[in-house]
Predict the structure.
Amino acid sequence: MDKPKVAADSPAQVELEEGKKYAYCTCGLSETQPFCDGKHMSTDFRPHVFTAEKTETCYFCRCKQTGDAPRCDGSHKKLQEPERKG
Ligand code: FES
């Protein structure tokens, strides 16, 4: 697996809590998108672990094409039809 799986072609709204640690899924295999559930273990992908700097509502990438992980940068709009997921 050299490319991440497109988990969905839209971002996920998430509520972050200041000071809390999160693990964002980068492989696209997690069933708890946009967060890691450990399914990357059979791949070379690793989760993007971070601590929220403030409490806020964010939109996290699920197509895994963003250049600003974990946040959506609109890249899902450029996906070709076979890559799209619902
Ligand atoms: S399940 Fe995708 S990075 Fe962990």
User: Anything to note?
Assistant: DSSP finds no helices and four strands in the chain. The pocket of FE2/S2 (inorganic) cluster is lined by residues 25-27, 29-30, 36-40, 45, 47 (CB under 6 Å). The beta strands are 12-16, 21-24, 48-51, 56-60.
